[in-house]
Give the backbone structure.
Amino acid sequence: MIPEQHHDAVARALLETFGTSGYEEISKMTKGQTASPVLRVVVGGSPYLLKIITRNEDPTRHYTSMRAAADAGVAPRVRYTNVEDRVSITNFVDAAVPLPASEALVRMLALLRKLHDLPPFARAPFNTTCTFLLNRTPASDKFPGVAGYLQRFRASNILPPVECYEFFTRYEELAAVCPYDDGEMVSSHNDLFKPDNILFDGQRVWLVDWEAAFLNDRYADLAAVANQVVSNDDEESILLSAYFGAVPTEYQRARFHLMQQLSHLFYTIGFLLLGSMGQPIDWRQPVPAFADFQRRFWSGEVGLADKDEKVVFGRVNWERVLHNVRQPRYAESLRIVGAR
């Protein structure tokens, strides 16, 4: 269960944290989309979460962000981190109690406010959120740029020609007006589109899996949370009013709405590419409405583990943006944000 090459690192972590290199129980956590081993270990009768990053990367930003969030009561307590070994131990959250989306709406707001008020996280070398589509930073050998990513999607011919034209038309509209400015950059989680990273222990909600944490536009986290738990205009007003501490301005509502559409485009690209694996997609197959899929996603009825689920997620995001851009609010939001 523990990769052989990491046995010594794990033993060091346990010894330094608990004074023993042994454990009473160990089991693999099966939820989540990470390739890193994530293990539940019981030491001294108490469970903890042990994570080993197997990718050859520097986890300093990850661990620093996770500790800051834990100190603020947003993430579980951090017991141990080692940058060289790429091993961490945190308190284990028993998330056996379901959290209704309506209750999550209220609880998540307090967490996001705390998180976004933290001292600035470090920037990341590669953006894994929808704001990547707004980043005009030139590509490097290690990190491809927006143009290359979009060209790969266009060349894949995943979308039918007419819809591909519409996709890029909408992308150009959003990229032309959505700002990518430091004024809205805050410490962000950046991976809240998945319910696996939002855990409820019966009393408190915790955010976990901080590998993607970095300084990002506040509206990216807001859009991701809203896509999970907001089902109507009244709930959106509750979310934005509570987050901003006042009735949102016309501009704030417009920025938020456009970020939601950008996120739908981002997940359309990402999950259609991941799910199709270079093979044609049968567009005749029906897919659920976005709200229905999100309800089942939140409750754990569906996931994103296999390629077919990834394709469905990409398609429901595409259907959602097709619907939204035909509503008056979209054109009005473009006008409002563009005027700035």
Observations:
- The mean pLDDT is 92.
- The CA atoms of residues 254 and 332 lie 8 Å apart.
